[in-house]
Amino acid sequence: MRSQEQLIHEASLRILKRTGMRFEHPEAVRILKENGIDVDDKGVARFTEDQIMFWVNKAPHAFTMYARDPKYNITVGGDHLNPAPGYGCPFVIDTDGEQHTAKSEDFVKFLKLYHQQQSFNVNGGIVVQPDDLPVDNATLLMLYMTILYSDKTLLTGTADEKQVAAMMEMGKVLFGGEEEFKKYPRMITLINTVTPLQLTNVMTESLFQFVKYRQPVVIGSLAQAGSTGPVTLAGSMAISNAEILAGIALCQMISPGTPVVYGCETTAADMRGGATAIGSPEGAICYNLTGKLADFYGIPSRAGGCLSDAKKVDAQAGYESMMTYMACRDSNINFMIHAAGIMDAYASMSYEKLIVDFEVIDYISRYHRWFEINEETIPEDLIDEIGQDGVYLTEEHTFEYCRIEPLTPEISVRGTCPEPGKALENNIQRKIDAMLEAYTRPELDADTLKKLDEILISRGVAKDLIDRLADM
Questions:
Q1: Which residues contact 360 (CB under 8 A, 6 or more apart)?
Q2: Judging by DSSP bridges, how do beta strands 91-93 and 99-101 pair with one another?
Q3: What are the phi and psi torsion angles at 155 (to 5°)?
Q4: Distance between CA atoms of 44 and 68, rounded to whole angstroms?
Q5: Which helix (H) or strand (E) covers residue 160, if one does?
Q6: How high is the mean pLDDT of the chain?
Q7: Among residues 25, 67, 69, 181, which one has the fewest Cβ atoms lying within 10 Å of its Cβ?
Q8: How far apart are CA 396 and CA 157, in angstroms?
């Protein structure tokens, strides 16, 4: 009996051969034609099974990303799980569910909180989209702020060719010149297809720049079953899989062996109004299947996160996030953008939900750690000694294991408390305050900082804006 992965794979190959994938960028079309792919005058490429698999099989099974501080290096692939920040939100939601448009101060505050969280070795990207940054340099400035406020593995946004080229120049400055920058994976970005079956110019320009310097990209698809994809999950996953395979093939044609990540955020559309339902059970199923499909192809995976459609931090935000993160963890998703803080169907970030999601990640990590069974963990002599009348609380065995076996939550409410209605909210705020109070900005030498500033000035960024972003 063929597996679900095999069935989806076979359907995707038929889609790529019959329907095809449209590539808007003329350079992408040229590369595809040079490699024998049938491309019509509308840019629709049709692949045979042999063509697709020849290129997909050139992608590495796993790779290491190198951070500015080596203690934050990560392995992407295998059974390694790497939580990464939320991505692309124009709004921030407060404790009462009120929205405000994101500012650069919000971007930096989120960077600092992610930097302080031990379960995250990745920082940056488009955590929020600040509306006080000039549009023509916004992605570049977000990378600049990430470099200033964190030395973890770098996630970046995407943009037009010239802006991403400037981002690559920052990478060269930060990591010892062009040859050294190209030698190792240092920065990763998200290349999103447009469902159904398209790859746009801007995304392709970003892809070209990253692959040129052998920096890894996530090829991501987000079909919405019932709107941008067939209402059946199998149909939408088949389209998403086809898009991802075609994108990976293009990457390998440009630079064989360049690291890529198989990324899929496919979920359901709510049939009552067409809204994206990122925290749905259907989404969780698709995120879980993404990990299995990536394993099927031998490529690292990206999907899901602590996802919720809730409009404030409430019970819905909790149960949806726990479900979607568990679905990803169960299938060993390797790189998880949106791992904490995201809600409102990708529209908003929340400081309070960020802290809740940090705890969700800790809970599920503890669940998957399970427990050991040996002579030490089943202390039969102690059990015999205690018998039926003693207690274990003050025993040496308890002292030895009390910080190893049980997880001690940081915000969850247990036992008696004077104000149970506000206890969780108060714990969340205390943790935010403590993390920001403990934050220390990573060191960056003056010469490097000067060169980064010169790149921004050459792009027309005002010096007073650079100084403001550097002093938050």
A1: 306, 318, 321, 322, 325, 340
A2: antiparallel
A3: -100, 135
A4: 41
A5: none
A6: 96
A7: 69
A8: 51
